[in-house]
Structures are given as C-alpha cells and as structure tokens.
Design a protein that fits this description.
This protein is of the alpha/beta class. Strand 3 and strand 4 form a beta hairpin. Helix 2 packs parallel to helix 3 and helix 2 packs parallel to helix 7. The longest helix is centred in the middle third of the chain and has 22 residues. The chain is elongated and about 60 Å long. The two termini are 22 Å apart.
Length: 240
C-alpha cells in the first residue's frame, strides 16, 4: 500500500497537496476509491481512501488509525565519515531501512571527499529525499533526518546526548553485544571513511566517552560497515 508522510492527521479527512498530490495523481495514477497509508510526525499510521484526486490536491477519508509498529525501541544516530562520491547515498538508504533515526556526516582526517558548504548543501537535499523514499518503502513511522556535515570535534561534543557511543575500529575493540547494554535507549554509532580512523581520532573518541568496538576479523568497506553494525545492533536489542 502506498505510504505518504504528513505533519499531522486530525479529524476524519485530510487534504494532500504539493509533491504528495502530484505523486499520487501523476506517478501512481491512483483513482477515487483506492486506499493508501498516511504517517504523521508522531508515528501514527492511518489507512485512508481517496475521495477526490488531482495533481494539485488529493482528498483522503480516514478509515482507520493505529500506532506504527515498525519503529525500533532504541534511537540510533549514525555518525558516518564522508566517503567518496556515491557511497553515502547507499549508506543513507540502507541505514533508514534498518531503523536509524538520524544520520550525521562527519569530516575526519582520512576523508577523501571534502565538499565545500555550497556543494554539501545541494547534496543534503538529495540525501534527505533518499531517506524519505527509503522510509516509505520500508514502512517507517518517521522520516529519519540526514543532518549537515559536522567536524570531528563537533561530534565529540555531542556524546553527552547519548546513553552509549560506539566507534567501530578496524584494529579491534569490544564485541558490539558487550559494548551496548540493553538498557541503552539512545545510541550513537560511528563509522569511518575508506581509510578508517587515525589512532589519535580513536583516542579522542574514547577519552570523550566512546567505546571502541569491532565488526570481526575482516575489514569491511565503509559502505558495508554501517549496514553490518546497524543490523547487529537491531538484532541485539530485539528490533530485528
């Protein structure tokens, strides 16, 4: 069933405009009487029936309201060191499918890609569009946000916001199951770019409160590591 995100669902009907209306009318070619799903910012899903449709406006009658059940019990932020062009799009898509709440690109000493502010701003629009489409496809109750690029030092200053912070390091560390207690509700996961992290960066993160962790004896690509880490984390916490 097609899924669309709206800010708020109130009453027995809702009017969709803008991109939602155009997508329903032009791309999906949905007609009066067809059923769709609406999700709001509070994680509420509504089953609705189209009662009128045009590219500018779609009227939907609310048939049933229920709490979305696809959202994980933990809030996970992925801090991803910026990889080469193209890889970050895959990371965003798969991370959203796996249940991440926020994705924050970070700049580390070994990042090859170092876009300027204007270039990154344009890319951010595309990344958030990819997050939206992935959220629709996977039945998420929210649209995870891809935030602006931050420095490594800025990331370190945000550690106090989390119950647990885990940095994955190719030279070893704790098993993820031991590193993240089941009582943790807000978790940050940090993944490096193609060159990984420098020892100095790992030391700074550990001093700031992060736990160094491992994904096993094999060296994973930077686009594979976040998928593996999030999959293990979601399984470990009963969200997969």
């Amino acid at each position: 069933m097609p899924r669309f995100f709206v800010e708020r669902i109130q009453g027995n009907a809702i009017t969709l405009t803008g991109e939602n209306a155009a997508h329903i009318a032009k791309s999906l070619r949905m007609r009066t009487g067809e059923v769709l799903t609406l999700s709001d910012a509070d994680g509420v899903d509504c089953e609705g029936r189209i009662i009128s449709v045009s590219p500018e406006s779609v009227e939907v009658e609310i048939l049933e309201t229920r709490q979305n059940t696809s959202e994980p019990s933990i809030s996970v932020t992925l801090y991803q060191a910026l990889p080469k062009i193209g890889k970050f799009e895959t990371i965003v898509q798969k991370a959203v499918e796996l249940g991440v709440k926020r994705i924050v690109p970070i700049l580390t000493s070994r990042c090859v890609s170092r876009p300027d502010e204007k270039s990154m701003s344009k890319k951010l629009e595309r990344y958030n569009k990819i997050a939206l489409e992935a959220a629709k496809q996977s039945g998420r109750g929210i649209i995870p946000a891809v935030l602006p690029l931050v420095t490594y030092e800025r990331m370190l200053s945000e550690f106090s916001e989390y119950d647990k912070v885990v940095l994955f390091y190719e030279e070893g560390g704790e098993n993820l199951g031991k590193a993240v207690p089941l009582s943790a509700r807000k978790v940050a996961v940090i993944i490096g770019s193609e060159g990984g992290f420098s020892k100095e960066e790992v030391e700074k993160a550990v001093q700031a409160g992060a736990a160094a962790a491992t994904l096993g004896p094999r060296i994973l690509r930077c686009e594979t590591a976040p998928i593996a880490a999030l999959s293990i984390l979601m399984y470990h916490t009963g969200n997969m």
